[in-house]
User: Which sequence fits this backbone?
């Protein structure tokens, strides 16, 4: 049995199938962990979503910012953005089945020493904090998705406080687990900077370099940050987004062996 953690797909079905062939994936013995952003920007969002949905118990998924954006658009709570490739899903005959399944997925999963979220874990949080936040978001997302998505967008609050309540508490959790890249010395999220490490102002640092080591009790798997090219220079932190949708690579990390396997990404 092998567990393969796979980086952002973003609608790139052909590279995923090629990667599974290279891994010699077997539904009888193996499990796949997907770090979010299954869809959007790539050539086959609908086919990718159908394929991952069809994996059933062989797949575990965390939601990424693009997945949440799709659900918000489908709930009529946010407009389509320029560059989105969501129309094939929104008009598919099996749309409701796929979207309902996506709504059931968490923001964080954990097994043994491994913890996966889409963007990482903010300073000061341990694994149980990420899992608690994921559970809180999932509860509200499934209880009242329209209300949830009507309040999800925005960059504030940027700092975690245990006494945050309601939409502010949920928004911070979503931003930390699906959008974060850089943080300030006091742990505040800075969501406007999107470049590679070194491109940010000197007052900011990648979240995984913060002295208050996030989830130091676990090894963290994350995607979201393509310009890292799979390289986070901190022990116990594993970056998986290697720019598949930008024509670079799709990457899998086999957890039992820590071996990385890659195929070429989408060739436009």
Assistant:
């Amino acid at each position: 049995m092998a567990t393969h953690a796979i980086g952002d797909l973003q609608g790139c079905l052909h590279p995923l199938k090629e990667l599974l062939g290279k891994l010699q994936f077997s539904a009888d013995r193996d499990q796949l962990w997907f770090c979010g952003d299954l869809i959007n920007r790539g050539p086959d969002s609908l086919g990718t979503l159908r394929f991952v949905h069809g994996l059933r118990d062989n797949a575990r998924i965390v939601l990424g910012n693009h997945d949440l954006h799709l659900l918000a658009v489908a709930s009529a709570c946010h407009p389509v953005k320029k560059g989105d490739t969501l129309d094939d899903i929104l008009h598919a005959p099996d749309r409701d089945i796929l979207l309902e399944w996506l709504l059931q997925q968490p923001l964080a999963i954990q097994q043994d020493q491994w913890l996966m979220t889409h963007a990482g874990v903010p300073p000061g949080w341990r694994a149980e904090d990420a899992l608690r936040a994921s559970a809180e978001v999932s509860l509200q997302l499934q209880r009242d998705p329209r209300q949830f998505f009507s309040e999800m967008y925005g960059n504030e609050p940027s700092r975690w406080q245990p006494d945050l309540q309601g939409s502010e508490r949920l928004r911070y959790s979503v931003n930390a687990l699906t959008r974060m890249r850089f943080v300030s010395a006091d742990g505040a999220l800075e969501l406007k900077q999107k470049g590679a490490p070194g491109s940010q102002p000197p007052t900011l640092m990648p979240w995984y370099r913060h002295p208050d080591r996030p989830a130091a009790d676990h090894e963290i798997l994350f995607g979201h940050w393509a310009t890292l090219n799979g390289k986070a220079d901190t022990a116990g932190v594993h970056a998986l987004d290697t720019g598949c949708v930008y024509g670079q690579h799709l990457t899998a990390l086999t957890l039992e062996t820590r071996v990385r396997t890659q195929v070429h990404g989408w060739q436009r």
Notes: The first strand starts at residue 3 and ends at 6.
